[in-house]
Amino acid sequence: VPPCTMRNLTVDGHFGTWSQWKPCTHTDGASVGSCLCRTRVCDSPAPQCGGWLCEGPTMEIANCSRNGGWTPWTSWSPCSTTCGIGFQVRQRSCSNPTPRHGGRVCVGQNREERYCNEHLLCPPHVFWTGWGPWERCTAQCGGGIQARRRICENGPDCPGCSVEYQPCNTNACPELKKTTPWTPWTPVNISDNGGHYEQRFRYTCKAHLPDPNLLEVGRQRIEMRYCSSDGTSGCLTDGLSGDFLRSGRYSAHTINGAWSPWSPWSQCSRDCSRGIRNRKRACSNPEPKYGGLPCLGPSLEYQECNILPCPGKSQMK
Fold first, then answer.
1. Are residues 187 and 242 both part of a single domain?
2. 23-32: b (≥16 Cβ within 10 Å) or e
3. Which of 127, 140, 149, 221 keeps 20 to 30 A from 85, CA to CA?
4. Residue 4: what pLDDT?
């Protein structure tokens, strides 16, 4: 009979104390690291006669060094420019794994850059030239319009307008007077004591205009004279004749002037981007006669035309 059965000497095993920490090596995947290790033995007591073995590790490993490893590169970032030379970036980190306990750090760059869009040229920069000088005013006085212009360099898409307008010569025009020469004396179908009357006339116009050549037919002035039948006294201007004339006795009834219809608008000064056109009318519907009043208002009108921008031009707002 075995001694264990005879004496009932079953003893479960127990670990003894841990040994001191000692340097050791440890394999972690593809790398070998330096570590600290300690051991213990199941001998306090050792299991006997079918007793339980010790449960737990017989070795502990600590402070293993681990070399760092790179993560995969990230994707390239978007190009820093939409045209012209730019650059892209990609990155990686030394965290696959992270070095520890004296392990080697990763060798190499954690960031890479490269050029991009080097063959994609940017369109030229567009810009306005400076404003040109103001053009000649459309009127010497009484208010006109003048323009100045600028050019869009390197393309048609400059913001704003290529033409600018402003009022000019807004000072009132001086009053000008124009008088025609007297017409020859002509007989009037009026007789008195065998003699007859003669008349002559001229026109006078007053207006606030920049140029005397712009004056047109104005108020009519008539003079009368009496010529005796025997010719002894010649022809004498009678003061009463002027009174009679002014009252309209010997002239037809007074006719005030009226404007004719406006003419069609003239051709625009520009095909696009704002031009100027004009139209005219005359004080001839009817003309003023026998002391009638002249027409009031302008005989010439201006208007902007073709205000749409030229192709590729922007319009001033």
1. yes
2. ebebeeeeee
3. 127
4. 67
Task: Single out the residue in 199, 228, 247 at which a domain terminates.
Answer: 247
CATH code where residue 98 lies: 2.20.100.10
In a domain, 305, yes or no: no
What is the spatial distance between Cα 103 and Cα 246, in angstroms, rounded to a whole number? 126
CA–chain centroid gap for 157, Å, is 9
Q: Which of 13-27, 149-163, 206-220, 261-275 is the least confident region?
A: 206-220
Task: Answer yes or no: do 37 and 57 share one domain.
Answer: yes
Mean pLDDT of all residues in 251-267: 79
The answer to whether the predicted template modeling score (pTM) of the entire model surpasses 0.70 is no
75 pLDDT more than 70: yes
Band (218; pLDDT cuts 50, 70, 90): low
As a whole number of angstroms, the distance between CA 158 and CA 128 comes to 7
Nearest CA to 179 out of 207, 198, 152, 153 is that of 207
Residues 214 and 243 in one domain: yes
pLDDT in tens, 113-145: 999 988 888 888 888 999 999 999 988 888 889
How many domains are contained in the chain? 3
Q: Give the integer Cα–Cα distance in Å for 86 and 231.
A: 110
Decide if 54 is inside a domain.
yes
Asked whether 111 and 91 are in contact (CB, 8 A), the reply is yes
Question: Range of 208's domain?
Answer: 175-247
